[in-house]
Design goal:
The structure holds two protein chains of two kinds. By secondary structure, chain A is mainly alpha-helical. Helices cover 72% and strands 2% of the residues of chain A. A two-stranded antiparallel sheet of chain A has the order 1-4. Chain A has a two-stranded antiparallel sheet with strand order 2-3. In chain A, strand 2 and strand 3 form a beta hairpin. In chain A, helix 1 runs antiparallel to helix 2, helix 8 packs antiparallel against helix 10 and helix 11 packs parallel to helix 16. Chain B is mostly helical. Chain B has one domain: Helix Hairpins (Orthogonal Bundle), CATH 1.10.287. Helix content of chain B is 63%, strand content 0%. Chain B is built from three helices and no strands. The longest helix of chain B is centred in the last third of the chain and has 32 residues. The relative contact order of chain B is 0.16. Classes of the chains: A mainly alpha, B mainly alpha. Chains A and B meet through helix 5, helix 6, helix 9 and helix 21 of A and helix 1, helix 2 and helix 3 of B.
Amino acid sequence: MIIAALAPFPVVLPLGVGALLLGVSKHLPRRGPDVLAILTAAATSVICGLLARSAAETGPITYWFGQWHLLGDQVVGISFVIDLASAGVGALVGFLFAATLVFAWGFFEEVHAHFHVIMLVFMAGMVGFCLTGDLINMFVWFELMSVAGFAATGFALRSSAIAGALNFTIVNTVGAYVFLAGIGLLYGQGGALDMVALGRSVAAHPNDPVMALGFVLIASALLTKAAQLPFQMWLGDAHAVAPSPVSVIFSGAMVSIGLFGLAKLGFRVFGGAPEIVGESRRALLVIGLASAVVGAMLALGQRHIKRLLAFSTISHAGIMLTGLSQMSQDGEAGLLAYLFGHGLVKGAMFMLAGFIAAKCGGIDEITLRGRGRDYWPVGIMMALGGLALAGLPFGPMDEGFKLIEHGAADAGQHWIATVLLVSATLTGAAVLRVAGRIFGGWGELSGDERHGETEEEQEPGHQPAVLLAGPAALLLGLGLIGWDDGGALASRAAAALIALPEQPAPALPGSPGPWIAVLCAVAITGFELARRHLPHWFVALVEAFRVPPTRVLQRMQSGLVTDYVTWLAVGLAVLATAFVFAV
Amino acid sequence: MTGAWVGWLPWAVAAWLFGVGLYGIISSRHYVHLIGCLTIVQSATYVLLLSIGYRRGAGPPIFHAHPPSTPAVDPVMQVLVLTDIVVGATVTALLLVLVLQFHKRRGIVDPQQAAPLT
């Protein structure tokens, strides 16, 4: 029970320390804010871990703020409902922040502790979003993490960073208003904001079109945060221009947390509405697969390293959404395991991108060819990350993939796994190509291809290389080691997330699929880097298939916020039509 | 708790505000204009939320002058609107600062010429 008393601290602690830092940072020694922020993030992670363990042993912990709970039969309080999945994701978030803050040691020399304060508020928003059991509270945390994210993106005040932050802010703010309107509709029809109470109202009127519209509005906002088609446009800008430590958090945690919120909404509130669940299966599967493929193609067509990684995040979030769309324990377990593995590996990759920006003097793959030779161990890490993204069968990402594959096979959709493997192969190949070109010096291009189209970007490079690469090595290592019974743990967490009795975790035999994907990724990398030495007709043939669709996708990714909001409106209209007619 | 509906009018107003606000954002040629349009989209949520919480013939949910059992409009929705206003103010302030900084560096305020990475 002493553990249950810790329930509010994952958000109280970072918010409190953030406020304190803002006040006293002038009087602290130069590295004081760094140390304090790292310790706070680590403590948040540990508290979430303790809560997760306690929830695993004795069931979910419900904490009512201010002891407000029931008035008659009305739920009037606001609660944290801390189950294994929520607290586990919270622990991952805290850990990623701690590692990122070590990576960002001395990143911004000129400012007092503003960066740290923003990061702590950002973390509190994410953890609160994971733990809450109340819709309006979820919205508040969602906004807190959004606004902290907006500020963190534009923090460096370069013109590209500001333009990216503007796009990010505008698109996501439209998303936030849509979220709030959805909450209004659900409250108007269901008379509650607590997720469990609202779930009961939904189960009593499962075919209410206004409820369905409410679901669409909230789901669209969460899909915007998770950067899924057609709401994904902002991500390529924001992740690419944000300072590297911020990109680590964006890709490693923020995007997948949007999907985590969507899973909670889908099961806890709408689990009793079979039509909405059924339509979610169809719609989210289409969106997930499309995002996986489109993101992968865009990643392979990029030369701006951070943007390349950003597109690969869209692709991998699409894989997670495919798991989510199965609306089953296996699918959600796959989502959770993949979320962990991806957070660790992609976080490490963005740290390495930051390393390149700091030590090699740029972020453009082509112009940096061979400039990383002195840092070859980092190149090996990056190559390992590329292989992991392609599907290397180790660690939680592989565990998640197998669970998603299993869920799809159960539903008779074996082809889904193939589509996902192809997209993973392409993103992995893109990262491998960067590693080979920068750290190996391979893949020289002919004259007119060499001209950079990306803005030169350099990040502060005075930190010791070990400090920049160390946290990445830690994350990558954790992302690649197998966890004992990782699949069983993910299944337990998924059962807690979907609030249904736990089914036994499926036995997951290894399949040759991931190895084939890894081999294909290596082959594609070889093709990309050895292009000059291959027969001309062969290169032309491959390009004829690859270049036109990539061009179309790149043109759609115009960088203009007006286009992005148009896509958002289109997506909203299509989803609303589909769901309202489904009930 | 479901509020008595005032009728279809507030819904229509909310939908209209949402639509014109979105159209304004999509067609905007000036960031400050765009931020104004964003505020209009937000106003749609104000109207929607307030109309959901409204009850015909009920007073404000402040029980200073009259006893707590008298009918009142739903305070939860009013609280949501307050949250909404706070969020809107924060985001608008942040956006205006970003636009100012952007104009200082690039000298333009047209969102249709402001791609970050092309």
